[in-house]
Write a structure and sequence with these properties.
Layout lengths: L4 H15 L18 H15 L12 E5 L1 H15 L7 E5 L9 H5 L7 H11 L25 E6 L5 H13 L4 E6 L14 H20 L12
Parallel strand pairs: 1-2, 2-3, 3-4
Helix pairs in contact: 1-7, 2-3
Length: about 230
Amino acid sequence: MAGSLDSEDTPLRSVTNRCGCIVVSVAYRLAPENPYPAAPDDAFAATKWVAEHAMELGGDARRIAVGGDGAGGNLAAVVTLMARDRSGPRLIYQVLIYPDVSAIMLGSRYLSSDPIVTPDARIATLGAYLPMLANQEDPYVSPISAKSLKDLPPSLLITDQDDPAWDEGGAYAKSLQQVHVPVMLSVYPNMIHGFFQMAGALDAGKKCIDEVGAALTEAFKSAPISPSVPPAPH
């Protein structure tokens, strides 16, 4: 419902600088003007476009990762499911930062004292994002409801112990582990929802960007490199 290329620019440039990768930021359509499935459709279309035009960007179609925070974490998780279900593009990694992976309000949604995403705000957001008759357990709405999480890319899941999405994020990491998808679960203490975008004020925000950069660097290093592709610019 909110956010823009400009609002995400600083942390994404920081990630780019940490790992020397190309970052493509997606200006997907926002609710309530464009409710579900506009956002995941746009995110998946952008991912396919990047894979098809990787060489034009100076990138490598065999080394593509997706990521996002909050609602963006939901879209990243949904894109990995879509890519698996629709036979590509192949993704090698996903970064999910305090992701919204369930439209069903779990315990931490009610118990958290986080000032950013209150229970009332969450309910209002879902009401604006989802059409009235939408199935909240559709895996492209709630990735945690997917019948299977097999064959998804390795994951870094970052959250904070007081986050409203803590229960669903922790459960999603556990579900991935149960089907042998490699997962690193990183839990930050005493943080608030949105700290990834607060590196200018919070040391935890800087640490989070460093962690994402290191994880992506390792993921890209471990993946096969197309011999005809020049190194990504730093």
